[in-house]
Amino acid sequence: MRSDGYRVENYQFPIMADERRAGSTLLQRLLGLADITTDREVWMLYTSFMRTVGPGMVWTYGREARAIAVGTTGGGPDIPGHPQMPALSWDELERDLRLAVHWCDDIYIHSLEGCVWQGFLLRLRALDWRPATTPPDGVWLAASLRRTLRGALWASAHPWHVLGTATTAAWIVRRWRMARR
């Protein structure tokens, strides 16, 4: 597509950024994700998947995003045997849009058909686009989850460092115990 002069975007789980930073491929191997280089990534920060911590994820990952997709409002792929995610209410969608616009100007909504079905299009036209000014509830939990993920990904990419540190710590503890006797 690039060779034909088109810009290429992809929709990506933001945890891939953490995986790249750690130098890991664990998520790609475990979840079958693909890390494809494009001109721009649109980070899928759908709070409908994790309602409690989701708004905190928009805030936590948003500062690094070039483009953010929020949702889901309904619709999307209907895959037999897989559950449909519950759709966001108008209040949840509005909150997510205001959180996202705090960090970047390129905001996407998944999905247009869900917005039509729920009657959100007129509301979107009249939306007050003032960005959220304070972090949402649960941002501390989202940040903690992200730090834990980063640590696990780093450890998966640097097993010799982890083994060396664990061995050294065990040796120090053993020496300390022996000295106390």
How big a fraction of the residues is strand? 5-15%
Q: Calculate the terminal CA-CA distance, rounded to whole Å.
A: 70 Å
Tell me the count of domains: 1
Secondary-structure class = alpha/beta
The helix fraction, in percent, is: 40-55%
- Tally the beta strands: 4
Shape: elongated
Average pLDDT taken over every residue: 93
Strand order of the largest sheet: 1-2-3-4
User: What does the main sheet amount to?
Assistant: 4 strands, parallel
Number of helices: 8
Q: What's this model, at a glance?
A:
By secondary structure, the protein is α/β, with parallel strands linked by helices.
Draw up the topology in text:
Layout: E1 9-12, H1 15-22, H2 26-31, E2 40-44, H3 54-62, E3 68-71, H4 90-103, E4 107-110, H5 112-118, H6 121-125, H7 139-157, H8 159-180
Parallel strand pairs: 1-2, 2-3, 3-4
Helix pairs in contact: 1-7, 3-4, 3-7
Keywords:
181 residues; alpha/beta; 8 helices
Describe the structure.
The chain contains eight helices and four strands; from the N terminus they run E-H-H-E-H-E-H-E-H-H-H-H. With 181 residues, the chain is α/β, with parallel strands linked by helices. It has one domain (2-180). The chain has a four-stranded parallel sheet. The chain is elongated. The protein starts with 8 loop residues before the first strand and ends with a helix. The relative contact order is 0.16. The model has no long low-confidence stretch (mean pLDDT 93).
